[in-house]
Amino acid sequence: MAFPQTRLRRLRKTDVIRNMVRETVVSIDDLIMPLFVCPGTNVRNPITSMPGNAQLSVDLLVEECKRLVSLGIKSVLLFGIPESKDESGLVACAHDGIVQRAIRAIKAEIDNILIVADVCNCEYTTHGHCGTIVDGDVHNDLTLETLAKQSVSLAEAGADIIAPSDMMDGRVGKIREALDKNGFYNTPIMAYSAKYASAFYGPFREAAESAPKFGNRSSYQMDPANSNEALREIEQDLIEGADIVMVKPALSYLDVIRRVKDKFNIPIAAYNVSGEFAMVKAAAANGWIDEERIIKEILTSIKRAGADIIITYHAPQMAEILEKEQQLKGI
């Protein structure tokens, strides 16, 4: 029936009614906080383009994880800044690598935390690309060998989930094979399956010290114009053994998240990346937006699009927003 018999505003009349019929709710359990670990002791290097974030030495990283857990955030995604780099990123495979040390330290002091370990080479190579360079380009199959070794090393250190972000063809299958061969058949893979060659990664490259020294990553990361290709990438990763797939970035690719959710009945992660975060912080610093409302709206839109898991630098602030809402409701 049409107006006036049908009045859609009836279900918006009060907070109680709006809460009752709300279709999408972001939970603290949906959130993963990215963290950057660096060498040294008592080191906190602020990331200027990402206010509130910093490179942390292992000791301070453990304390930050304790703080996050106290806020209700139970999952973190780790990126490493090593003491030294090499041509193929083999330093990332070392038993005492920076992320491996961080994982062991966190696990030694915190029981109820899930650690996702990013697997890539860009932070660990002298040239800043995601694999071994041959004739001026990343060699796909040689890079797979390094990624598999890195994944096993991280699993041995205690990583709960392995998250390859390199976008090499066949890397999920190679990593799954290596993990299973070494007894880590219960360790899930969260694949960065549809990772776009995006301009939104700028602040991250400052944070991870991973900007490429030449060229760009368009020969392995996806063209922002394509979404059919994303479905092919995700299907291939699922065939190879991915347990969770990811779309990255999130905000400019909500349509891709929705298409993936509609086609595949699997858990989907979305990465609310550094550039998206930095824009909110810059606008809020200038008084142009209501920061808390914007954060909640952004994360709600990502979940509404179909994401089950949201990786976001807004996680601590969102935890505080959710806590305030619970207090207002008297819960």
Q: Main beta sheet, described?
A: 10 strands, mixed
Counted beta strands: 12
Tally of separate helices: 11
Beta content comes to: 15-25%
Quick rundown:
This protein has 331 residues and is an alpha/beta fold.
Structural features, described:
With 331 residues, the chain is α/β, with parallel strands linked by helices. 40% of the residues lie in helices and 17% in strands. The protein contains 11 helices and 12 strands. Strand 2 and strand 3 (54-57) form a beta hairpin. Helix 4 packs across helix 5 (171-181). The longest helix has 18 residues, at 140-157.
Would you spell out the secondary-structure blueprint of this structure?
Elements: H1 15-21, E1 31-38, E2 44-46, E3 54-57, H2 58-70, E4 75-80, H3 98-109, E5 114-119, E6 133-134, E7 137-138, H4 140-157, E8 161-164, H5 171-181, E9 190-195, H6 202-208, H7 228-240, E10 244-248, H8 254-263, E11 268-272, H9 274-285, H10 291-305, E12 309-312, H11 315-328
Parallel strand pairs: 1-3, 1-4, 1-12, 4-5, 5-8, 9-10, 10-11, 11-12
Antiparallel strand pairs: 2-3, 6-7
Helix pairs in contact: 2-3, 3-4, 4-5
Label this structure with key terms:
17% strand, 331 residues, single chain, globular, TIM Barrel, alpha/beta, two-stranded antiparallel sheet, ten-stranded mixed beta sheet
